[in-house]
Amino acid sequence: MADSTIERFLTASGCLDLLWSSWAPCPVVPAVRQRLDKLARTLPAVPHIGLELRLGGKTSQVDLHQLLDADQASKARHILDDLDTSSIVDDGGPWARLHRFLQAWANGHAFGALFKNIYLEHDLPEGDDHRARVPGIFLDVHNRSRDPQARAKREALIVEAIVWLRGGLEAEAAAKLARCFEAAARVGSVGHIGLMLGREGGAIRVNIKDLDRDGLLPLLEAIGWPGDRTAALHAFTRMLDEVDLVTVALDLDGGDWRPSLGVEAFINRQRADDPRWRRLFEFLVDEGLCTATEAQALLSFAGTIIPGTSTPTWPASWAVAAMLAPRDHLASFRRELTHVKLTLDGKGGRQAKAYLGAHHEWLLPPMLPAATDGESAIPLSRTLLNEVMDRALDFLAAQRRQGGFWRDFDLAIGESDEWVTGFIGCQLVLAGQERGRLLAAQAMEWLLGRQRPNGGWGYNAISPPDADSTAWVLRLAAALQIELPAMERARAFLAEHLLVDGGVATYGRTTPIRQNDRLLTTEEVAGWRFGHDCVLANVAPLIGNEALVQLRRRQRPDGAWTAYWWDSDVFATVMAAEHLDPVDDAPSIAAARAWCLALDPMSLSTFDLAWALRPLLRHGAASDRTTALTRLLRLQDQDGGWPAGAPLLHMLPQQTERDGAPSKHVDQERCFTTASALATLALAMHAIADSIES
Fold first, then answer.
1. pTM of the full predicted structure?
2. DSSP strand E in 141-277: where?
3. What is the dihedral of CA 423, 428, 429, 431, to 10 degrees?
4. For burial by CB atoms within 10 Å, which of 53, 319, 347, 694 has the most?
5. CA-to-CA dists, residue 388 to 384, 398, 504, 674, 678, angstroms
6. Distance of CA 552 to the CA centre of its chain
7. 259-285: per-residue pLDDT in tens?
């Protein structure tokens, strides 16, 4: 909301008022809090702050950050207003340069288009020395464009900003920076540029994003980084599989790179029960980089407060803003654990820091969905389908994690990576595009590193291995024509899940199932060890004729198969039909196709729609698929993905039937559904090749 009358009441100090009163196990001692409060009162009225905490019993040293966007730049210039800076503002020193830069940013300089956000980093001041309080500045320069001309233009503006803020740039430093930009463009991208204006030496920090596990060493070699590269690679890869994003921070001091290096680990999900946060802090505690008390306090940090529904008293000025706001604006205060940083100091030492965010946020009622066009048929062409598929590949490539895998489905045990990655890899190979096949091959490489000692794969690293996840990895390996000893071990693991009657259980009888650190009894896990049609449909062609016989036997009279893990039978039915013999099982396949054809495309989720289309594309007439295919094409989002729609059930271990499942979850990252839609459109390209224009 841009009403300046209201915004002036939303002070930065209000963030700290609520933070101290709502975060009971806060490790920041009262004396430091008081000094931070004093500093916050001098900041512009932008209620978005951050704290930088040194861990390992060193939380008495805290820095205060403030996030600003271009619209708030004019406010940022007033950081001088409460300070006695009349004698230094025009002296050409760091205060004057910062003031001039912020003024240009606010007044339409090209910086405004380049730097969407900036962070001002205030080192906790000592005494009343205002010169020591010149904040550092971090410029958000991230852009993944590979256009050389656009990149050169951006890099020139970055260098210009550095010159403005530092008062110059040494020729050797400029050359080193240019070499770093060039190297980063080959293996990743530059995320932020930081300038420590108030620190001796005035180093330039370069944060590199989007590095995969093979990208760090070539980058460090290309720029001539003098630190311990083995230690850097170990720290980087240690974080890569555990979190959503890992960035690397490098410092250019004059004409030389410092041998220190920072590894910043981000987890998108702000929930204390996400096991990745807990594992990350357990690692830091085990390494002596964080105390157990600090870890517990940080795991409890994330949360949202709404005035009138929570204990802390709302800051008086914020209460005024809430009263002046439109009636549909509900005030809230959000606390977020943004990331953890592990720093290698270049001398063999390590330090950990935690970065916390706290900000005011208006909660608004949901927008009504925009009107859509009618569902008239879309004229199909190879060009159209290729464009749609290219956008889908762009989406999946962007959603892939740095380690070469995907995550989806937000359950209590965390998001899936192993199962989801095996499934998405299979769909990418089926799509038949070289770029997708390369992504799938990289995913397979990651999966090979995650195979369990017994040969299987699971939902994620903390869940036991299961038949369904293992089958998707085996199917991916077969699609990529990979045959290794690992595959033989996986097939042996899978065979253990074949039941006496020919069915397939998700979890084998010897697989331990734990809940809340307690090993469940045989009776308590009867449901998960039962024969499941949706797993049978996936596994059957991999483990022998008995499973295929059972698959034929389990088809319902209406032509479908009954899923266990899904709130719909479409996925299981289509997978089952795909594995039947086109000649011997023709009546069964026809019955499954008729069942899919009877479904209403307008009422199906995107995921079910994509799968229900497949038998119609493989075996149906053109008139059978027109409505459903048109619907699928129209549902693609602007970013290339499709709306989440895979209806995964949270089944209790003892449940043998899906009725009464406690909850349903969809693929909130949209990767599972998008990969399904992409593979279906590849089938459409082949199925209608003779009837569309070249």
1. 0.76
2. 189-195, 204-209, 245-253, 256-257, 261-266
3. 130
4. 53
5. 6, 16, 37, 11, 8
6. 40
7. 999 999 998 777 666 788 988 999 999
